[in-house]
Specification:
single chain, 245 residues, alpha/beta, BirA Bifunctional Protein, domain 2, eight-stranded mixed β-sheet, three-stranded mixed β-sheet, 7 helices, 37% helix
Length: 245
């Protein structure tokens, strides 16, 4: 599996489009299985359900920008999820034979990676939905009553993407943004469920978590470092509009 560390914190839409491009390329057999691990720029990643009502979606995007988060439409499902350079994204793109193949197994693998990595930094985490959490899902990862990580999937013909986000620092900033974004979307939730791993282990940094996640992934997969292919960037530029909506 190739490991790509490239990131564009000043252009979160490009980062989303690069992941989209990788999914297309792996699906077409142009690239092998690829993992991205990186700290993103300030992003409010909306799901397609959020975009169904144009007026509330527009209001939520305005609310995200007011807190300094770039709004975009992500590939995976669920509702709005925010993150910034205080978080770590892990994205794994793998070839698949059929679109429906292996969905539970990929969710289980991604959450196991998160739980193992959190244990390595001193946090005993569990998998499961917290009552009232944002972007609720059965495969959320939580500890001490707060959601620390979420996972999402998107499959196309030939490839599947699993995305996992781990919130480490800036939990208060994220919580404040989500309060206004979810109010605009008209979705009830409990703000107390939003925080970061550094709210539990005060000395933990996003850089620490990133190193730990890469090391944990390397313990389970044979990784080969790679750089960003210009062809991937060129394809990503054609896919930007799918995420700017």
């Amino acid at each position: 599996m190739e490991l790509l560390r490239a990131r564009h914190p000043d252009d979160p839409v490009l980062d989303a489009a690069i992941t989209h491009a990788l999914l297309r390329q792996v699906g077409a057999g142009e690239k092998p299985a690829t993992a991205r691990v990186f700290r993103p720029g300030p992003t409010m990643a909306f799901g397609r359900l959020d975009a169904l009502d144009g007026e509330t979606y527009d209001n939520a995007r305005v609310a995200a920008r007011a807190h300094g988060f770039v709004p975009l439409l992500r590939l995976g499902g669920g509702h709005a999820a925010g993150y910034d350079e205080g978080a770590v994204l892990v994205e794994v793109v793998t070839p698949v034979k059929t679109i429906a193949e292996g969905i539970p197994a990929r969710f289980a693998s991604a959450t196991a990676l998160l739980v193992e990595s959190l244990a390595a930094v001193g946090i005993a985490a569990r998998v499961g939905e917290l009552p009232g959490e944002y972007c609720a899902g059965d495969w959320s990862v939580n500890a001490a009553g707060v959601k620390l990580a979420g996972t999402a999937q998107r499959s196309i013909r030939g490839a599947s993407l699993v995305t996992a986000m781990l919130i480490v620092e800036h939990g208060a900033r994220l919580r404040a943004a989500l309060v206004d974004v979810y109010a605009a979307l008209g979705i009830a939730w409990r703000p107390s469920t939003a925080a970061g791993a550094a709210d539990i282990v005060r000395t933990l940094t996003a850089a620490d978590a990133e190193r730990t996640l890469v090391a944990t992934l390397a313990a389970h997969e044979r990784l080969t470092a790679t750089t960003l292919d210009p062809a991937t960037v060129a394809l990503a530029q054609t896919l930007r509009s799918a995420h700017e909506r």
